[in-house]
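Priority: medium. Attachment 1 of 2:
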């Protein structure tokens, strides 16, 4: 089996998390230039936005980068065509089933790596032609599944033959090593990149990450079937109070409409949704992407050799 670095043409076995409305060409190029796989996350944007970001990313890096497609997007099917036309090399998907697009993508030579929340879904996407899967635990930020990274990753590793990339709850060397100990061949990092110099979010968002403690994330939308992990704030509390009080889906959607954009672009501390993973509590500084990636891997094999179990 090829390792992830050979498979994707990167230096370090690290993939940037999707991060809708956040991961544009600037962040993607920074990650790819630093030796990881950067991704432009289309989120709810349209195909014109994506074409423009791909063009900018090509100006900013000559290294490989990919596109992350959020499958709940109303534009998903047109975006699916654009990645083929633009000769994108790697596509990751989230928040749904990439099945309808997988044949066309693999025929076009695109390496497809779906984010999966369960063993059954991992097996299904492997059969359909995925080259690897990202097993994302519920520690992650944004839209999440039920299982933890610790429980999910080894079960997926045992169930599929393609490489497994671990995601959710990874922000330092100990967690990278733990992911590899569970059988992962790479890691996906999201929250840690929010606190990077190149991440194009409002300074209030970065400061909220830096100031967060371990228990400062909360899951909204569990009852409505779309659980999303965010940093605690008045918006998140109001959402859960309304949901507990029996608010309809429509009322809840009205409350959250545009809330991620309010966090990302306006830094609106009251009514923004600041998506972040549980590792926010261990992030203390804003650093360049290159430093973040090098710190995750430098000397990691010596660190591994120092582990003493019995
Ligand atoms: O997709 C993510 N994280 C995201 S997407 C996003 S934008 C958004 N905002 C509000 C509500 C919904 C989306 C913010 N964060 N991570 C990957 C991920 N994929 N997590 C869970 C899943 C998933 C869930 C169910 C993947 C497949 C799936 O299967 C559905 C099916 O068809 O069986």
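Attachment 2 of 2:
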């Amino acid at each position: 089996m090829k390792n992830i670095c050979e498979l994707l043409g990167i230096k370090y076995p690290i993939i940037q998390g999707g991060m809708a409305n956040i991961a544009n060409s600037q962040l993607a190029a920074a990650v790819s230039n630093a030796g990881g796989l950067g991704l432009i996350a289309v989120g709810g944007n349209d195909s014109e936005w994506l074409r423009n970001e791909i063009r900018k990313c090509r100006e900013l890096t000559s290294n490989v980068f990919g596109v992350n497609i959020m499958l709940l997007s109303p534009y998903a099917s047109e975006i699916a065509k654009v990645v083929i036309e633009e000769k994108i090399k790697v596509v990751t998907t989230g928040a749904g089933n990439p099945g309808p697009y997988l044949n066309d993508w693999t025929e076009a030579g695109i390496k497809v790596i779906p984010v999966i929340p369960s063993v059954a879904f991992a097996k299904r996407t492997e059969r359909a032609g995925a080259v690897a899967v990202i097993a994302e635990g519920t520690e992650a930020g944004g839209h999440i599944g039920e299982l933890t990274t610790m429980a999910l990753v080894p079960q997926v590793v045992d169930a599929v033959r393609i490489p497994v990339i671990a995601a959710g709850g990874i922000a330092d060397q100990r967690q990278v090593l733990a992911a590899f100990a569970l059988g992962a061949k790479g890691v996906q990092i999201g929250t840690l990149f929010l606190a990077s110099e190149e991440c194009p979010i409002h300074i209030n968002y970065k400061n909220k990450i830096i100031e967060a403690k371990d228990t400062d994330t909360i899951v909204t939308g569990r009852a409505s079937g779309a659980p999303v992990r965010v940093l605690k704030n008045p918006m998140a509390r109001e959402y859960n109070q309304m949901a507990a009080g029996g608010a309809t889906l429509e009322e809840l959607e009205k409350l959250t409409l545009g809330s991620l954009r309010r966090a990302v672009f306006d830094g609106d501390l009251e009514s923004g949704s600041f998506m972040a993973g549980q590792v926010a509590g261990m992030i203390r500084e804003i650093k360049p992407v290159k430093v973040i990636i090098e710190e995750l891997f430098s000397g990691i094999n010596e660190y591994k050799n120092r582990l003493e179990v019995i």
